[in-house]
Design goal:
Blueprint (H helix, E strand, L loop, with lengths): L30 H4 L20 E2 L3 H8 L6 E2 L3 E5 L6 H12 L1 E5 L3 H14 L7 E5 L3 H8 L6 E5 L12 H18 L2 E6 L13 H4 L2 E5 L3 E7 L6 E4 L10
Amino acid sequence: MCCACGRGFALRFDQCSKCGSWGSCEALQGRASKATTPDDRFLLLSSARAHSPARLLISPEWNKAFGGDATPGLAEGSTNILWGKPGAGKTTELLRILSIAGGLHIFTEDLDPQAGMLRLTADNAGIDCSQISVTTAATPAEAIKAMRSRTWPIIAVDSLQGFDHDGAGGPRMLKRTARDAVDAAQSIGATLLMVVHSTRDGDMSGPQWLAHLVDGIFCLSSIQIRVVKNRFGPMPIKVKRTKPRLRLVG
């Protein structure tokens, strides 16, 4: 390279053919090795360390649904959707998962009657609710504020379609709500569970792009847990549910 004008040459020279300078030839150190040095923008996949999150052990059926036999349990920091028909036991199972590490249960309905019903559900199922906090959020903004209020191990949003969007509902607002909830959970390292409604035909309600937003999708019925998507475990699989032993309270 000519150090006077900056023009590059493949061979050494005495006089620069561009600016006419004599003795201005300067070798570029490391030019030959640069071609063989890996670019920082690219990484060989074989050199990357596989991400293996810590697991929360819940119950035999949920451990298998979330992680399979090799890595059982719910992956910490994951984002998930839980859906099923009314009466499938979504609320009970949310309480069961929340009771393992403690967390926040966000409702989109009035808190007073819901909190009482939740306590009754937990007591009937023999679930320890001493580490579970509950709150209500009428709008997505209120829910996000509650999520960011402290470092929650697990957050449950019940349900994604139950928020009041001030008349601006629809797929676009649902997408924004789900994305904001995922971003808020990931910012504090929380594991997120979002309840989604079921259609009359038994399918998951809402746009299909919801599947691309989360790590796992689990369909709950009275007899089984069907794994629709799972980045941290095997799929598709079906796990038979054990009938809970309810106890009479009162």
